[in-house]
Amino acid sequence: MSYQKRVDGRKFDELRPIQAKAGVIERADGSAYFKIGDTVAYAAVYGPRELYPKFLQDPARGILRCNYNMMPFSGSGDRVRPGPNRRAKEISLVTEKSLTAATDLSQFPNSVVDVFIELPQTDAGSRCAGICAASIALADAGITMKDLVAAVSVGRVDDKLVVDLNYAEEAYEDGTVADIPIAMLPSSGEITLLQMDGTLTKEQLLEAFELVKKACLEINEVQRKALKEKYTLERNDTHE
Amino acid sequence: MSELKVEERSIVVPGEILADGMEYLPTKGTYRDGNYIRASRLGLVSVDGKVLKLIPLTGKYFPKRGDVIIGKVIDIMLAGWRIDFNSAYSAMISLKDATTEFIERGADLTRYFNLGDYVIGKITNVTSQNLVDVTTKGPGFRKLVGGRVIEVESSKVPRIVGKQGSMISMIQTLTGCQILVGQNGWVWLQGEPRHEIIAIRTIKKVEQESHLSGLTDAVKAFIDEELKKVQ
Fold first, then answer.
1. Where do the domains of chain B lie?
2. Which domains are delineated in chain A?
3. Is the dihedral of CA A213, A180, A141, B32 positive or negative?
4. For residue A211, how many C-alpha atoms fall within 13 Å in the half-sphere facing its CB?
5. Which letter does DSSP use for residue A72 in this model?
């Protein structure tokens, strides 16, 4: 048997509907909302600001600190115990690495930029949604960066390659599933996050990269629009 | 053939292509990527001949030597005071830069500036590691007593001050408030409480409408209107 039609009726290379908004948290230096399908992420950026304890400081550049947090009832399953767990710590770390590749904090030695990612509702692809939200929030905070980081998962469900798996697909039981979250800088195609869960062939993986590139460009478009909307709106509002 | 890909004064986001070709020169807020020039932060495009620059719309105040700033005392140390001034770093007022008075060894420093006091001073030095020195010695520099401090976007400060201080002196005369604007985006004002509120509203209005022309007249009308309401 093969995977003929996706559970939610999308095309195999189609993303879930995306909504994005910049500047949703008043007191943060930069913030963003990113919704892809039923996965919702908020990101808040604080800084650059002084970093303590002092031994964490890097005199050559500012550092980026990320915190990924899934809210207790965000998933479709049981309540998740709040606070950092092994999974959240790992995702915080890979998020940090994938965003560090795009940002340039050399102007802010000894300082820190804090990124807090909160997920009130998840339906797979949460680390990717978190990265997308965080990069909008970083740009909103005025941080110097090469490009906005776009991230999406790609994977294999049975015999088909699909983009942006939802939870039903991740939990597909009639065949093999592979899930590969990827983050990239859309302008250069550089990959800043690559993880894999499941099995697939080399050829499939190469094909998956091509799919993801197209999807990331699409996401990048949404991210850009969200930022421009915020700043254009601020300007138009006052015309009246 | 080089070609500009965006309009002047349009809003661009990191990674966006600004120009194609080697004839254009990337400067502040932009970088070269092969043939392209891309934006490296969020801002407004400014084109000066072949030179591309971004005017930041958001972000922390970046300390610059010679800037007049308003800061808040956050710590008192052996040889001076530590100041928070809305930037990524804190600044230092050393004993010898604090006042023209002679400060005796072991004197009680809180007599000059206490914790939580606001001061106005000038940045005398910024090092490569962004250690900032501030002096409060000089005409107009002092501890700010009474009044209140509000925060505005530091990139909008030039507009709030106006040409040769025209905007801010107009707000001062009309509302009767005394106003001091720091380059770091902190504004101190003191006057009759009702008028202070009007001055704050006016400053917020200027901050939001900083891109409009003919703002001075609009602001004058706005203050007159508000003043009528409280009388």
1. 3-56, 68-144, 148-230
2. 18-237 (3.30.230.70)
3. negative
4. 25
5. T
Nearest residue of A to residue B211 by CA position? Answer: A235
Phi, psi (degrees; rounded to nearest 5) at A68:
-105, 130
Reported as a single tens digit per residue, the pLDDT across B189-205 is 999 999 999 999 999 99
Q: Which of B150, B96, B95 is nearest to B118 (CA)?
A: B150
Helices and strands (H and E) in chain B: how many: 5, 17
Q: Checking DSSP bridges between strand B17-20 and strand B3-4, what pairing results, if any?
A: antiparallel
Strand partners, A129: none
Cβ A115 vs Cβ A44: under 8 Å: yes
Checking if the pLDDT of A237 tops 60, the result is no
Mutate to test the interface with A, among B5, B11, B13, B212 (most CBs of A within 10 A): B13
Cβ contact, residue pair A139, B11, below 8 Å: no
Q: How much is the mean pLDDT over chain B? A: 92
Task: Give the pair of three-digit tokens for residue A186.
Answer: 């859309």
pLDDT digits (tens, 9 = 90+) for A183-228: 999 999 999 999 999 999 999 999 999 999 999 999 999 999 999 9
- Chain B: residue nearest A49 by CA? B88
Fold of B68-144: OB fold (Dihydrolipoamide Acetyltransferase, E2P) (2.40.50)
Q: What is the CATH number of domain B3-56?
A: 2.40.50.100
- The two domains B68-144 and B148-230 share their CATH topology (first three levels equal): no
Task: Determine the CATH number of domain B148-230.
Answer: 3.30.1370.10
Tens digits of residue pLDDT in A66-89 = 999 999 999 988 898 999 999 999
Could you give the CA distance from residue A6 to residue A86 in angstroms, rounded to a whole number? 31
Give the whole-angstrom CA distance, residue A190 versus residue B113: 52
Q: B132-135 and B142-144 as β-strands: parallel, antiparallel, unpaired?
A: unpaired
